[in-house]
Structure formats: structure tokens, C-alpha cells
Amino acid sequence: MCHAFLTDSRFYQFLFHIDQEIAAEVKANGCRCGGVLHSARYPRKPRGLRGLLGESYQTRLSFCCAVDGCRRRCTPPSVRFLGRKVYPGAIVILVTALEHGLTPNRRDWLIETLDLWPQTLSRWRKWWREVFSASRCWQAQRGHCMPPLDPGQLPGALLGALTGGDLRQRVCQLLYLLTPITTGSCSGYLRAVTDPQKM
To answer: Is residue 199, in this structure, part of any structural domain at all?
Structure first.
């Protein structure tokens, strides 16, 4: 199956490694006030494939300024989580992209394996069409796509427009492109170079 990597624990550990690199850069830059950032992870309870995700997915990497009077939280961008969504970003991307071309048997397999409700799939499609397509992240990225992509075909059209040796690499690239929408408290820090082939 083309999406078999979704059930490979190494894929999720690779994404955690990318998040650690991003978080290390954010911490090294410190707070906007000049203060030092201390770890202030907060709990997450991701759904779907919990057994594969491991303990690294039980928390979101985050920091808090050490300066009294500031104490500003800084949550780095993430390739694991799409903001507050309870499913890992890779699942949201791939299941939504695949849904239009899925056979009923494969759709049932995904719903059962990932513990998805059909209503969840509908919400994800709506999010891509209405929320993401209106976001600054998409407005900044869509100009790089030639020919222009139809927002109604997201995320599948965007996955298809990315270059990469296989679907897993394109999913990683898309997760990286989506990092600006994964945090509201910390931006402008993405300098890490990711290579999905190092997984």
C-alpha cells in the first residue's frame, strides 16, 4: 500500500527528531525579551495509532521565558501536530488526500485502523477547503505552484506538486511547509534542514 509508512513507528520517530531540531533552534534564540527559555512541555493525547507513536507524542515541545514579568510561552512550530488537531499531521494530510480515490474497503480499513469517524473526515476536508486555503501560510505558498492549484483539491494537489522520491518524502515536505500554522506563539525560527531520506 502506498500509505504503509503510516503504520511504521520509525516514520513518527523521524518527525519527532525534526521537531527536536526546530525546538533546539527556538531555545537557542531565546525569548523576544532577551530571556532564557526553559522547557515547559504540555501534554497531548494524539488519536490514531497510539501504540506506534510512543511517549514522544505524549507531549508537545514548548518553552517558557525565565524572566519574571515576562514568562511568555513559546511553542515551536511542529511537523508532528497540526495545531490543536488531535490526530498527527501526517494522518490528517494523507487520509484527506487519499479519501477521494479510496476504494470502500481501503476507506473502511483506514477508518477502523485510525479510529476515525466519517464526520472527522468531513471536517478535515472542510478545514483544507475553507480554513487552510484562506490562511497566510497557503497564500505565501500557492504562488510557488505552477500551474496554480485548486484549493478544493487540497491537500492532494499540493502533495502531487511537491518533488520527492516517494509519498513519504512528499508528506514530510508538506508537514514542513505547514509548520507556520502549527503555532501562534513562536514563528520565524525555521532554519532546520530536513531530509526525509535520513529516516
So the answer is: no
Q: What's the pLDDT tens digit per position in 23-59?
A: 999 999 999 889 999 999 989 888 877 677 888 889 9
| Residue found by looking up cell 464526520 in the block | 119
Look at residue 63 in the predicted model and tell me its pLDDT: 95
| Residue of 83, 1, 66 lying closest to 27 (CA atoms) | 66
Q: Please give the backbone phi and psi of residue 74, each rounded to the nearest 5 degrees, phi first.
A: -135, 105
Q: How many domains does the chain have?
A: 1
Would you say residue 169 lies in a domain? Answer: yes
Range of the domain at 179: 4-194
Instruction: Give the pLDDT confidence score for residue 136 in this predicted structure.
Output: 86
